[in-house]
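Tutorial handout. Part one gives the primary structure; part two gives the three-dimensional structure as tokens.
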Amino acid sequence: MTLSTTAKEAIKTALAMTLAYGITLSLGWENPYWAGFSVAFISLATSGQSIYKGAMRMLGTMMAGAVSLAIIALAPQNRWLSMVLLSAWMGFCTYMTWGEKHPFFWAYSGYVCAVVTMAAGLDPVNAFNTAVLRSQETGLGILVYSLVAILLWPINSRPAFEAAGAKLASTQQQLLKTSLEWMAGQRNPETAQQLRTQEIQEQNQFGQLLAAAATDSYEIRELQNQWRLYQRQVGQLSEAMERWRENLAGEQSLDMPSLMPNLSGFADELDSRLTQIGCMLANQEPGQHPSAVDPEIDEARFRHLSHFQKAALTAIRVQLRRIESLTRSLFHSACYIKGFCPAAPELGDKPPVIKEFGLPDPDRMAGVVRVMLIMWIAWLANIYIDSIPGGADGVAVASTFGLVIAGMPQVSVWLMFLPAFISTLLAGLIYILVMPQLSSFLGLGVLLFVVTFAIYYLLAAPRLNVAKLLAISMFMTVISVSNHQVYSFMVVYTVALMLLVVFIVLAVTAYFPLDLRPRQSFLRLLGRYFRSCEYLMDALSQDPQKRETRVVRLRKTFHMQEISSLPTKLGAWSKVLSKKALPGTSPEQITTVVTALQGLSYRMQQLIEDRGHPQAPFLVQELRSDVAAWRTKMTDAFGCLAGEPSVANQNRFHTELTGIMDHMNMRIEETVDKAAGHISDQDGENFYRLMSAYRGVSDALAVYVASAGAIDWAPWREERFY
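Part two.
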């Protein structure tokens, strides 16, 4: 009989859990469940993932121990100052946990610091012993699970990583092919959207497996920098294709096969490159190397187009060249990584530090405020409410839950309460009815193995990860194994009441100081989105050749990040909107609005990038007033949408916007005729790219106004508790 992968992983976790408890008890250490927590929280699909997470947990625990000792040293016998320092550290760790770098390390640094500080009180000796013991047991749990994972049915991360890379390359190839077919007149937006969603998921998986494979594979670790470069190039190609598709969607009137005579050959070359990349990632030598190719334009047909059509075609050609360049770079990166090319590609520039530290994300800052508020409410309740269940442990538990939900505000607190409470009751039954019958570690070991196996086998599905971790955590907390075991119903009763108090605190912070109900959150993010668009549009009035101050650059970068990230956040909130609370609004309508916002984001980003290119002074001077009128209209529209998600009179809005664009088109024709023979080809290309960007923003805003106008927003403003 062949065991399934799920059964094997459950057996490995159960065996490691049993061994960790057995070794801890034999050494006479207190709180053996700390070693159990290490086993429970690092068990993942491959050895590399588990080892990487275990290393982050160990380093985070050591950092937490040092910080907790520092807090007690800085605030001896001063509980208020120590709480200020602890909450500040928890806030910092919360912000970093939901960033891009080493989230596991920061998560463990935060909640372990809260556990150690609360368990030690303000006694320096007790704090040192607690920190050392916690580090010892964490290290023991990591060591035990790592050895079990390596020796028993080991799963190396490298095959899974390479398979994920090949799958991602195949998905991008299909997506590119679908988009090129769109250019040829074969439109299939549903397939493109499905492939785009699949591509995003596979990019995330690829990044996670890269960190794991670099841990347990020497070959991957040696080429880690090149793999990171490949990962960045994949992300750049994904974004370039998405922008290109947005342009195609807005220019359906152009006959691309006629305007670009070598489009078929160009498409075949790009398809061949991505095919060869997939082959190389599967360790097959490429059949051919990239050939020089450029999307040509039929000049005779080009001259008969309107100026806005010329602008659109020029922008599409620029984007195709960008995609061609990225696919060539991807090919060379994969070729070098797999040893088929001798020369290493350039690593490129590292992402700017300012993105992480100079411009804090408002939603992550809201999570920081929420965690600190949770800590202070739990702390004050512990001080001023006599005999509150859990005491100082309740503060640590509340802090841990707060850190977890800070980056997932869409998750309802009470959805987490049910599995936690049921797990506590089941663990209580085992604690009261089964454990008193055990007389040796043999019986306890069998119990630990069976329960751990059952939890990890029955709750193995990824969507049940939260329930799985809650179940194993409550089980270890309630049974509270020690060498001098004592049984009391008050243990179960206290844990259950402590959970109730903790979740009440979590629920309070879901409404204050920031209302995290889905409707209110969606409207708030929508307002933020259009305020950022308004700022960026108004900033276009400044001379692009004039040097910006640091403050202006920071604000501009911040708002660029806002319009880039908010459509994704709105998409996450749209999935938890209550149909009952919004009669007449379908999920499809909300999805259409979010998709329109994503398209508007790409258009705004393209406009800001293209405006940075030098323009012919004559064209700028001639069209200054027309562009200013368009910009004023856009700024006013964004300002209105920041307060109200829809336009009151859509017909009037479309008429005014169409009138402005028609007038601009007429002025462009007059200006270009005057400038004939006086501007260079590069100036002409830059001008048409900028005109395409202006038109793109107008069209994208019109699409949003139409999609938002189909929704009745009145129920969104009504006061409800849900």
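Part three, for discussion. The chain has three domains: 5-155+357-508, 157-337, 518-717. The first helix runs from residue 5 to 26.
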